[in-house]
Design brief:
Layout: H1 3-6, H2 9-16, H3 22-26, E1 32-34, E2 50-59, E3 71-77, E4 83-88, H4 94-98, E5 104-114, E6 117-121, E7 124-127, E8 139-141, H5 150-160, H6 184-192, H7 200-204, H8 209-235, H9 247-255, H10 262-275, E9 287-292, H11 298-311, E10 315-319, H12 323-337, E11 344-347, H13 353-365, E12 370-373, E13 387-392, H14 400-410, E14 428-433, H15 439-445, E15 450-454, E16 464-470, H16 474-486, E17 490-494, H17 502-520, E18 525-528, H18 534-545, E19 551-554, E20 567-572, H19 580-587, E21 597-603, H20 609-620, H21 624-635, H22 638-641, H23 643-646, H24 660-676, H25 678-689, H26 693-697
Parallel strand pairs: 4-6, 9-14, 9-15, 10-12, 10-13, 11-12, 13-14, 16-21, 17-19, 17-20, 18-19, 20-21
Antiparallel strand pairs: 1-8, 2-3, 2-5, 3-4, 5-6, 5-7
Helix pairs in contact: 6-8, 8-24, 8-25, 9-11, 10-11, 24-25
Bound molecules: adenosine-5'-diphosphate and magnesium ion (MG).
Adenosine-5'-diphosphate (ADP) binds near residues 260, 261, 264 and 458.
């Protein structure tokens, strides 16, 4: 290939799509197919069906079309003799040369029958010699970009197929594929060029055996890569922390106004088994996800896990995704642990100058046992003297990239400060999330995580009654708020924040605040929104927490994790704009005290049936797992994975929701393969995941 051809726009577009070598081209699979394997007489075609018609051109305008203008030429079907008009709405000049009178052409497209005869509008046309053979297989249509013509892409993929390394990675008999799966090369070739006898439906809905093989391989790669990460982790060393309960934990438990629930005790035992295993066991870094519904009491578990680090002389870093959440966490930990002599440092984007320097010094010297904050905690300059444990609250809110940075931080080796001669120790990692990850997702994306579940809520909670109402009843709802305020309750009013129109939403929230202040006077109404500076936000939250503000109008900055037990009524405007899990998180802000709680979901406009069903689901259940399951059905896995933030597409072919059987089969086989053929496993991972492996590990 000449240098000029290499630089052609189409060639560049090919590279831009990531189709850089034979393998990537072979794995660029068709979206759909066109059947050009047989000629159809125009009268035999059915409406909506695209067919291949062979014509001899009979009447062609002498003038080539002006670009973009309509143009029509007439041909005669070589099989049936029928006349067919080829109509081009936006023609290009080259058509005149292609369609010479007397020329044979094959036109592919839909045939329309009208009283004036047969029409084909914008068919794909190609000049042919009489008797030219038809393709033996269906013609693939690939996903492509504007600057990459379908034909160019077809040719490059067809050229790549014979060269693509599609050998089986696992060759020996005891590594055999699950029954019924095709050899890889055969599967790939079938998908690119299926025989016309293959089931088109199965090809299109990806249930065809050839698709099964592709998906299975991809899922297997994902399992292998996660298990590989797990193996690596198990080979590294982490500090031995104190058991639970330790003296520090005991002192804390004595001061708490409640006793731990059995679920909290159980989860602590699971964490302790990682952090402080029996003496003859090596300590390897914990990698655990603590999953507990909103309000299930994860914070106190985090504090007690921190005690395991502190009591053994190690530091603990705690991170929350937003300033407000981090601030709350900080407040709780200061309240609980400072009286016991633990110094707690605070780091966030808004801590600057001398205060920041002091915090950094406290972390680096080891003076601060706990360092709490936003992702500022994992920034470059932050050093720890002896970092033993990292806890991330609401982990699903962090992007994949941030999780990767954090992993690096945890293994930077600062933690080995105690003894510079020994190998660096990796810090333990505890992630917490209120968004329950459905089983199939947990098994596929988080296979490298150990899972602890805080099931059930602490005692004394009252259920939340949820109502779904049309926005026209807004006034009625406002009128009822006074009654609730008189009973001493506090109220959240949530205004949606849609990224594209942040400014508008802000005006909206401001207007709502003004309206409620007037209608509910003299009750104090506060406003909280994303554009406010951190100290301002903190002041508003503090006022609401102290009961000085009785109503809090907020854009979704109140988010997850805010804890104001006296707030027992929540109104969400334009609830239809939220994801179900997000609504569940929001709703979890109420029902934290003993007062009966309610959540009103106001929706705008007439709802679609699906939209109504979604909101009804919120009214029907308070079970976070059930809601997550429905949300996954409706919105796909992005919400759970934070994948949207990274832009990385984690699985291209398989879909864990529908390919559960293949996932089970892959999981089952992964351990055996890793033990028997580690090198082949690496080759398999590289083939399917390539550069995406890092993301899958995160
Ligand atoms: P989340 O899991 O959503 O982070 P929190 O840790 O904020 O929940 O706990 C919610 C509320 O429950 C807090 O007010 C907390 O003090 C309280 N709580 C936690 N554990 C218990 C318990 N064992 N008994 C009673 N209340 C508890
Ligand atoms: Mg929380």
């Amino acid at each position: 290939m000449s240098a000029a051809a290499k630089a052609s726009p189409a060639a560049r577009a090919l590279i831009k799509l990531g189709l850089v070598d034979a393998l990537s081209r072979a794995l660029h699979l068709p979206l759909r197919y066109e059947d050009e394997t047989r000629l159809t007489p125009p009268l035999d075609s059915r409406p909506g069906e695209s067919v291949l018609v062979e014509l001899e051109m009979v009447q062609v305008p002498a003038q080539p079309p002006r670009p973009g203008q309509p143009w029509t030429a007439l041909g005669r079907c070589v099989i049936s003799g029928q006349r067919v008009q080829l109509r081009f709405v936006h023609a290009h000049a080259g058509l005149r040369k292609l369609l010479e009178p007397g020329q044979r052409v094959r036109a592919f497209g839909e045939v329309r029958h009208s009283f004036s005869g047969c029409d084909m509008v914008h068919p794909q046309v190609r000049a042919v010699q009489p008797g030219e053979p038809l393709p033996a297989t269906l013609t693939p249509v690939y996903p492509t970009s504007a600057s990459l013509p379908q034909n160019y892409l077809r040719k490059s993929i067809a050229a790549a197929l014979p060269r693509a390394p599609l050998h089986e990675c696992f060759a020996s008999a005891d590594q055999a594929l699950p029954r019924g799966l095709l050899p890889l090369r055969q599967a790939v070739l079938t998908l690119h060029h299926p025989a016309p006898t293959e089931s088109l439906d199965a090809l299109l809905d990806r249930t065809h055996p050839a698709w099964q093989r592709i998906k299975y391989d991809e899922l297997l790669a994902q399992q292998l890569s996660q298990k590989r990460a797990q193996q690596l982790r198990r080979q590294s060393a982490a500090p031995r922390l104190a058991p639970h309960p330790n003296p520090l934990a005991q002192a804390l438990l004595q001061h708490l106004p409640f006793a731990l629930t059995p679920a909290q005790e159980r989860v602590l035992a699971e964490i302790q088994a990682d952090l402080s295993p029996p003496a003859r066991h090596a300590v390897t870094p914990m990698h655990r996800l603590l999953q507990g519904d909103v309000g299930s009491g994860k914070t106190v578990v985090a504090a007690l896990a921190a005690c395991m680090a502190l009591a053994a002389g190690w530091q603990c870093a705690l991170m929350a995704p937003t300033e407000i959440l981090a601030e709350q966490l900080f407040g709780k930990l200061v309240e609980w642990l400072e009286p016991l002599g633990v110094q707690v440092a605070w780091l966030s984007g808004s801590v600057k100058g001398r205060r920041r320097a002091a915090m950094l010094e406290a972390a680096a010297s080891g003076q601060a046992g706990l360092v709490v904050g936003t992702h500022a905690v994992i920034e470059q300059q932050v050093r720890f003297a002896r970092l033993g444990l990292v806890i991330i609250d609401e982990q699903h809110r962090f992007g994949v990239q941030q999780r990767l940075t954090l992993k690096d931080k945890a293994s930077e080796g600062d933690g080995a400060g105690a003894d510079p001669r020994s190998a660096p120790l990796e810090a333990h990692l505890l992630m917490m999330s209120a968004t329950p990850i459905p089983r199939t997702l947990a098994m596929s994306y988080f296979a490298d995580l150990d899972l602890s579940v805080l099931d059930g809520l602490p005692p004394g909670r009252s259920p939340i009654v949820t109502r779904v109402l049309g926005a026209q009843r807004r006034d009625e709802v406002i009128a009822r708020m006074s009654g609730a305020l008189e009973q001493g309750r506090q109220i959240y009013w949530v205004c949606p924040l849609v990224e594209e129109s942040e400014k508008l939403d802000l005006e909206n929230a401001t207007a709502t605040h003004a309206l409620l202040s007037e209608r509910l006077a003299p009750w104090p109404v506060a406003l909280l929104h994303g554009r406010m500076k951190a100290p301002e936000k903190a002041a508003v939250m503090a006022a609401f927490k102290a009961g000085e503000a009785r109503v809090l109008v907020a854009t979704t900055v109140i988010e997850v994790g805010v804890d104001v037990p006296n707030a027992s009524l929540m109104i969400v405007e334009h609830a239809e704009r939220f994801g179900l899990s997000q609504l569940h998180q929001l709703r979890g802000r109420v029902g934290r005290g003993s007062a009966a709680s309610a959540c009103v979901l106001l929706h705008g406009g007439p709802l679609s049936q699906a939209g109504r069903a979604r909101l009804q689901a919120m009214a029907q259940t308070q079970d976070g797992f059930e809601i997550a399951r429905r949300d996954l059905e409706i919105r796909g896995p992005g919400e759970f994975l934070g994948a949207r933030q990274s832009g990385a597409q984690l699985l291209r072919f398989a879909d864990v929701q529908h390919d559960g059987d293949l996932l089970d089969a892959a999981r089952e086989r992964a351990d055996r393969l890793l033990a028997q053929a580690p090198e082949a496993c690496d080759a398999h991972i590289a083939r399917w995941l390539g550069h995406r492996t890092e993301f899958i590990k995160a």
